[in-house]
What does this fold into?
Amino acid sequence: QVPLVESGGASVEAGGSLRLSCAASGSAANRNCMAWFRQAPGKEREGVAVIYTISNTAHYADSVQGRFTISHDNAKTVYLQMMNLKPEDTAMYYCAAGCRFGPWSRAASYDAWGQGTQVTVSS
It folds into this structure.
């Protein structure tokens, strides 16, 4: 059973919007935090946003602040609403859960991952 399953990726034009979803199951559900990362070809995986599921506190990367919104549904599904998309947002987007230690934007801080969903933004 795959613990995290992403969906919603697509190809859109610059300025468009997308909503990504990630369904958590088994040990990946009901975790203290859920996050979105992205990885473009030839680049490192970077943290996009995180939400702490009890306090509903969210943090965002500077590059997406004001354009993306993260939310969750009882720590079982996490969403990423993406507005005003730019070509530089093109990447594989991954869902992660279960903050252990370290900065939220560091991939090693999480112990459950999805397989990714592709977002492509054309200019």
User: Anything to note?
Assistant: The first strand starts at residue 4 and ends at 7. The mean pLDDT is 95. The chain is about 0% helix and 50% strand.
